[in-house]
Amino acid sequence: MSMADEPLYPIAVLIDELKNDDIQLRLNSIRRLSTIARALGEERTRRELIPFLTENNDDDDEVLLAMAEELGVFTPYVGGVEHASALLPPLEAFCSVEETCVRDKAVESLCRIGSQMRESDLVEYFIPLVKRLAAGEWFTARVSACGLFHIAYNSAPEASKTELRSIYSQLCQDDMPMVRRSAATNLGKFAATVEYTHLKADIMSIFDDLTQDDQDSVRLLAVEGCAALGKLLEPQDCVAHILPVIVNFSQILVGWGEERLLGFITLQLFNLLA
Prior knowledge:
HEAT repeats lie at residues 10-48, 164-202, 203-241. GO terms for molecular function: protein phosphatase regulator activity. InterPro entries: ARM-like, ARM-type_fold, HEAT_type_2, PP2A_Regulatory_Subunit_A. By secondary structure, the protein is mostly helical. The chain is 72% helix and 0% strand. The chain has 18 helices and no strands. Helix 2 runs parallel beside helix 5, helix 8 (119-134) runs antiparallel to helix 9 and helix 17 (243-256) packs antiparallel against helix 18 (259-273). Mean pLDDT is 88; it is low at 1-6.
C-alpha cells in the first residue's frame, strides 16, 4: 500500500468489519472508533465516518449500544464543541430503535454532547432534533424526546420555550402509555429549567394531569418525582399543589394493599418536608 493510500485504509477497514457476520469483530471495530477517527482527522471524521455510522443499519443491539456510548465522548474527534452538532444525526437515529437500552444510551450521549454545545448550535441543531423526535411517528422516538427537553430549554429563545412547554404537555397526553411514563419520569429534570411563573402554571398543570392518568404506572411515576418537583416550589405552593397529591395517593395505596409502595410514598413525603 502506497503512502497516498494510507488515509483511506482505516475507513475501508471499518466498513468491512462493520459488515462482517462476526459480531465480536463488529464490536471491536466500534470500540476502536477513536483510533480510526484520529487516523482520519477531524474533517474526514465529520465528512465520512459520522455519515457512515448514521447510515449503518446494524440490527444487533449490542453493536448499536456500543456505538451510542462511543459517540457520547466523540466531541474531540470531530473538532471540538464548535463541531459537536456533527454527532447528532446517528444518535438521533438510535433514539428510535426498539431496544430500550440503546435508546437510553443515545439519550444519555445526546445530553452529554448538548451540555457542551454552544448556545447558537443548540438553537440551530439540538432544539430541532428534540422537536423532530417529539413528533416522531414511532412511539420510541417520542419516549426518547422526553429525556432531552431539560438540555434544550435553557438556550431556547422565548418563543421556542413556549413551544417546548406546549410540546412536553402534548407528550404527557400521548396515546401511548410508554410515552406518558417517560414524560412523568423526566418531568422533574425539565421543571428544574423552567422559569418559576411557568413552573407554577404549565408544569404544575402537567403534573396534575399525570397524577390523574388512567394508567397506574404513569400516576406512580409522577408521584415518585414529586419530592424533586416540590423542592422547586415555594413552601406555600408546595403545600398547595404537592402535599395533597401525596396524601391522596397514599390512601389509594392503602386500598391496593401496596405496603412497599406506601413506604416509598411516605419517604417521598418525608423528603419533601425535610
